[in-house]
Structures
1.
Amino acid sequence: MTRDAFLADSGSEEIRSVIRSARPAFAFFGHYHSTGRQADGDFGPTRVYHLSHLELDLR
């Protein structure tokens, strides 16, 4: 089983565990530079999305 919906042997099992326990409607991440899309994987009822090129500029 892969931990990450985008890269094998990547991602955080702790984050997956929090999503499964808290069961939010949506979860987002943006640390990959690729086309945004809904992530594959078993996240229970939560819909997980990659936000393409998410950059947090601390100006």
2.
Amino acid sequence: MTRFLQITLLALILSACASTRFVCPDVPDIPRPGLPSIEASEVQCLTDETWNKLVQRERARREYAEELEAVLDAIGEECQ
């Protein structure tokens, strides 16, 4: 039992000496790409259901990209 206590105490002492260091990654400033515009005549052949799916998909992609930008901005602010 004494040996167990000694090992436990040694482990606690050694772990107190350990430190965590946060390393800031280089976060590049990536500009948003220019997206091509789409004319109404180009999508007239789509059904309403397909059009709605396309709009939902593009909205989800935009929101995802905006969320990633917010994360990168927060990392950049933490590291300054």
